[in-house]
Amino acid sequence: MCPKVTLQYKLEIRNKIVRAAIECFSISGFDKTRMDDIAEIAGLSKGTLYLYFRNKEELFYAICQNSIIDLNEQMSKLFKRKEDLGSDAEKFFINFRRSSRKRDRVFMETVAEASRNSKICKALYEHRTNIFQLVSKYLSQQVEKGYFKSNIDVEAISAGLVALYDGLTINMLLGMSETSNRKIWTEMITALCAGIGQMQELIPSSEYKSRV
Fold it and tell me: Model's pTM, two decimal places?
């Protein structure tokens, strides 16, 4: 008699497939990756793979969802105290970059694919919209707490932050060191927070000694 397949087991298999897809897409690109390749990396039969995802487009949607969940989790750890806004920027960059390095490579690669694949274009557009909304939500919460000025354009600042992160991702792909990227991110966020913040002084990034 076959053991009962639990919801937790299904979730673990699904996550394994998504991780395998990220691995394959980041190495071979979306277009050249086959479902067979993903099944092989995941250590599953092709039949099992198709029980969870019908095609690569569905897998890409799952990668987008995975990214939003990760971003939400990382951002929920920020802004506990206004005095920590400067150092939190560096912590966020280190931790989120660590978990999303291959995923970021996938997103950048699929930008070109989106010009030929309407489903991927739609997925990227929805993903970008979700990111803007999530970042805007957290900035709005800081306004409500009194950390940031009430008259700031939350949506414009959110778009700028996403653009900054994307630019640093391109830097990474082109070979710029992550030390340099992290410094650029931290200094820019510290300067931004000082400009829109209600606090008298932010902790300079140079004083943040802990390296995760």
Answer: 0.83
